[in-house]
Amino acid sequence: MQISDTVQQDLLRVAHLLADAARPETLRHFRQASLSAENKDSAGFDPVTEADRAAEMAMRGVLARERPEDGIIGEEFGVTPGTTGLTWVFDPIDGTRGFISGTPTWGVLISVADETGPRMGIIDQPFIGERFVGGFGVAVNMGPLGKRPLQCRKTKALSDATILTTFPEVGSPAEGRAFHHVARQAKLTRYGMDCYAYALVASGQVDLVIEAGLQPYDIHAPIAVVTAAGGIVTNWQGGAAHHGGQVIAAANRDLHAAALAQLQESLAS
Amino acid sequence: MQISDTVQQDLLRVAHLLADAARPETLRHFRQASLSAENKDSAGFDPVTEADRAAEMAMRGVLARERPEDGIIGEEFGVTPGTTGLTWVFDPIDGTRGFISGTPTWGVLISVADETGPRMGIIDQPFIGERFVGGFGVAVNMGPLGKRPLQCRKTKALSDATILTTFPEVGSPAEGRAFHHVARQAKLTRYGMDCYAYALVASGQVDLVIEAGLQPYDIHAPIAVVTAAGGIVTNWQGGAAHHGGQVIAAANRDLHAAALAQLQESLAS
Predict the structure, then answer these.
(1) For A68, A232, A239, B1, which has the most beta carbons within 10 A of its beta carbon?
(2) Is the distance from CB of A10 to CB of A126 less than 8 angstroms?
(3) Which letter does DSSP use for residue B226 in this model?
(4) What is the dihedral angle through the alpha carbons of B184, B190, B194, B160, rounded to the nearest 10 degrees?
(5) Which residue of A has its CA nearest to B202?
(6) What is the pLDDT of residues B250-261, one digit of tens each?
(7) Does A68 touch chain B (CB under 8 A)?
(8) What confidence tens digit (pLDDT) does each residue in A217-240 have?
(9) CA separation (Å) from B205 to A9, A77, B108?
(10) Is residue A214 within 8 Å of residue A224, measured between CB atoms?
């Protein structure tokens, strides 16, 4: 949909308010000895924390006050329909395993989407005090080093690329094989960065993130941030990524094409 | 050797000065587009950065002024003999691969050792602005959440433990198998944290770090910090770890014994 400049500015303003509201709720629980993680998924280890719920409640409170007619999709409390055609999508703590391990790699994911997908998003890391914002003409990082533009880098060859994913197994055995088929051709492979990996692509520090098994709320904000910085995010078939599942984020189109071809070669073999 | 309270206080004071001196030198180069990494080891990817050298030079400058008679072992500029029986051991940027990827998991490692090994150490993360200090009666973390005591946690069973290592391959194929033999029995495995992993053990956030192929300067400071927080760091045979190689850091003796037994079972099979 067409979003006026005035509305874009208001959405950016509210996105910052949402990130501001989530910060104290997550930090109240981060690195606390009493942090208790429930087991949400009996098949695996997917902890939900008090912080997750408190941060989402705080953000829903901001929206009820500031933009009550927008829709909401949140990881913890599900779907709230709206009437404006705009939907806020958030994951109050992306990277809960990182969160309960004390690593500074989790983040608060906030985005606003229309019928075409995410239009603007924030990846916020409250412990470091770092925020990555992309969309509506904005592509900026604010953190310990000040305010800096986000700009993906120009790495063209897979053999020059740094590639990231969170877990070495990635997803299914076939998905894991496809990831490692690409990673073997890269210069450097790193693990464990959660949503911070996408922020590093947008910051021009790394070149590729390849993941599988994502939820829509895991990837909406990263799509907005990476795209605003000149990168490209799709699924492993080259289509829209905001429905989740298999995702590849690349610093530029050439690298995206090279990595996608290798993923598909592995999946077809 | 016996180190008087007065000397201990002076060593702590100087250790903080060293960390303070290294911070601007590392941050000047962190996340810069112009960061150029040389290839130190033709067999692998082990970049040395300008930041590495500048930080070590800055620290050597502090020691020349403050404690000129102590020895120095630095990653970049080697051994400078001393006459006091005390040797400063530092790695100006531990986790250079993390550094050149923009992740906040690298650190400045500073320690002071006598003939028995490290007695006090600092793990400093300049980008976050976080410092972990252990030794001479001190065990403290200073960072975004304020000043907090370091205290390893009480996790006794491997099945309740969170285990970290930086690279999933760990070291040689046999070393990798041994790590994964332990990791399969743990509750949660995470990768990619560089020296920050040891700081998380000392902070009571995770339980085990198992690595191989370390240099002495990689592990001196972590030994001091983890030990001061009540943890235990040895090699995979249960002996002194400060010579490098295979290292296991555990939150407590029970967990150390359990993990060590599993490592040795795998190596013997």
Answers:
(1) A232
(2) no
(3) H
(4) -70
(5) A102
(6) 999 999 999 999
(7) no
(8) 999 999 999 999 999 999 999 999
(9) 40, 27, 20
(10) no
